[in-house]
Amino acid sequence: MSRPVKRPRADHAAAVRHLRAHPGMWSELSTHRVGYAARQLAHRIHTAYRLPHYEPAGAYEAQVADRDDTSIVIVRWLGPHREAALRKAAALAAVRAGAPLPSRNSSHRAAPGVPGVQRNTRTGGPR
């Protein structure tokens, strides 16, 4: 029994460069023998899940086209205006969520005049 042939991996960096040069145009990214794998990749591209080339989430649209015995992932970039709007919305959401709290790591001593965690000189722990 022979082993199945491995399909070539998609070059996402090259695909993104091509898509950014041609905003709004659909481009074929990869071919899959199993439709589930193609649908999963399309979803990961749209949400930018573990694919940093496609950030921010929603800046790229991906669909699956079935052709013969294969499923093909096609992708397009929605353009700079859509990407700018998504980045602005993400920045506003981060501001609304509030700034992260300062670290309570007792190994750091606050600079004079700067609020922060101070060490208890007797026990070495935080005050």
UniProtKB/TrEMBL annotation:
Compositionally biased tracts (Polar residues): 118-127
Segments of this protein annotated with the region Disordered: 99-127
Name of the protein this chain belongs to: Uncharacterized protein
Organism: Streptomyces iconiensis
